């Protein structure tokens, strides 16, 4: 039953669609015919108005009227007022003379104008086709009625069941409405709760911002105090110490050792008995020779290739090379390089002393500048608090 019903319903829909298409074509034709009729009426009205305005049907009639007026002006005596009227009529006739051709052209266009009579055949064909579709639709509806009647005879009267279904549908609709109302109420409460949570978050955020600003203020205060305390520490201490130690090291390389040391000799009294002698220390004894040496020994080493360098070579290790590298100087290889190196070290030491002197002169000014910065810190913290409050308002909005 349902398959046949769906098939018949599809046929009805197809026929209805074709009839709607034909109806749209017919409406378009009727609209076009109506437009043509209106256009013909306007052309006819315009033609009649021009004919009434001109008053003549041909140019010969206009030329004849102009000749008659001119003859009258030349042969008859009249008042000035009448003469002006005739002259004005001549000017009007001359202006209307070209319009005679326009009237003729309009008459020819009006005679060949199609007021939509050619579309009557199309309209008649559409009406005939629509009649066929109507007849086919009527037959399909009869089949649908017959199918429905057969179904009713098979299953009996369904009026009570349909009423029950409608009542159940109304109950379902009522429950759905009640459910929607409860859902809307729940969502409203949920929105209010979310707004409350947002307000609490904003309050906590504002408090956290305030605490953060206080901590930042304390941090800035401690930092400024540390900077003030750092100014009491003399700068370039490590650099100067390194330079001074290097100078001492270089001087120790060229310092000559005293070979002879004068030591104070203490007089010692010996209580010797008769016939006893005290041996003198070997180094304090006078040199005694059996015979005077006449020839000295030859040295084994001989100088080759000219005179040897007068300076003594200096041995370094990794640590001394590292120290000289820190000072950006070359380590001396011989004692001859030490005096020039000492001059450079003395120059570096003087440079560091000048920097320390400059620091001593500007130390108080720098302390004062830092203290002034501590005084301005409170105003900066207040500005940061106001800015954080504005940002919280914008986020809440």
Description:
By secondary structure, this protein is mainly alpha-helical. The chain contains nine helices and no strands. Helix 1 packs antiparallel against helix 4, helix 1 runs antiparallel to helix 5 and helix 7 packs antiparallel against helix 9. The longest helix is centred in the middle third of the chain and has 72 residues. The chain is elongated and about 200 Å long. About 7% of the residues have low confidence.
Key words describing this protein structure:
397 residues; mainly alpha; 9 helices
The residue fraction in helices comes out at: over 70%
H/E element order: HHHHHHHHH
Shape: elongated
> What class would the helix/strand composition place it in?
mainly alpha
Tally of individual helices: 9
Radius of gyration: 67 Å
Largest sheet: none
Tell me how many strands there are: 0
Give start-end ranges of low-pLDDT stretches.
257-264, 287-292, 295-308
Q: What is the percentage of strand-forming residues?
A: under 5%
Averaged pLDDT = 76
- Oligomeric state, counting identical vs distinct chains: single chain
How far apart, in Å, are the first and last alpha carbons? 62 Å
Topology:
Layout: H1 2-54, H2 59-75, H3 80-96, H4 99-111, H5 119-155, H6 159-230, H7 237-254, H8 318-326, H9 338-396
């Amino acid at each position: 039953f349902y398959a046949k019903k769906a098939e018949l319903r599809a046929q009805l829909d197809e026929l209805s669609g074709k009839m709607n298409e034909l109806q749209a074509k017919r409406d378009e034709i009727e609209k076009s015919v109506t437009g043509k009729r209106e256009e013909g009426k306007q052309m006819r009205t315009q033609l009649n108005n021009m004919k009434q305005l001109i008053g003549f049907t041909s140019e010969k009639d206009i030329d004849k009227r102009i000749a008659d007026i001119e003859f009258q002006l030349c042969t008859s005596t009249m008042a000035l007022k009448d003469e002006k009227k005739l002259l004005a009529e001549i000017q009007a006739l001359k202006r209307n003379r070209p319009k005679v051709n326009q009237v003729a052209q309009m008459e020819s266009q009006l005679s060949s104008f199609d007021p939509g009579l050619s579309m009557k055949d199309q309209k008649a064909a559409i009406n005939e086709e629509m009649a066929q579709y109507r007849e086919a639709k009527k037959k399909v509806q009869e089949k649908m009625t017959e199918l429905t009647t057969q179904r009713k005879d098979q299953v009996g009267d369904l009026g009570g069941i349909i009423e029950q279904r409608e009542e159940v549908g109304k109950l379902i609709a009522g429950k759905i409405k009640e459910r929607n109302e409860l859902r809307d109420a729940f969502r409203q409460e949920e929105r209010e709760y979310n707004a409350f949570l947002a307000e609490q978050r904003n309050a906590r955020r504002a408090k956290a911002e305030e605490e953060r600003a206080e901590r930042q203020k304390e941090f800035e205060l401690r930092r400024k105090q540390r900077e003030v305390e750092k100014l009491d520490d003399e700068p370039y201490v490590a650099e100067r110490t390194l330079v001074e130690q290097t100078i001492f090291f270089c001087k120790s390389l060229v310092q000559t050792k005293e070979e002879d040391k004068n030591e104070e000799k203490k007089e010692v009294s010996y209580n010797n008995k008769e016939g006893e002698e005290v041996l003198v220390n070997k180094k304090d004894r006078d040199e005694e020779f059996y015979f005077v040496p006449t020839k000295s020994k030859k040295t084994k080493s001989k100088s080759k290739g000219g005179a040897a360098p007068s300076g003594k070579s200096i041995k370094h290790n990794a640590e001394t090379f590292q120290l000289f590298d820190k000072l950006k100087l070359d380590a001396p290889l011989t004692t001859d390089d030490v005096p020039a190196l000492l001059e450079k070290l003395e120059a570096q030491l003087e440079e560091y002393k000048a920097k320390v002197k400059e620091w001593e002169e500007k130390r108080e000014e720098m302390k004062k500048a830092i203290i002034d910065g501590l005084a301005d810190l409170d105003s900066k913290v207040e500005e940061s608090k106001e800015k954080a409050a504005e940002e919280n308002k914008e986020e809440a909005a």
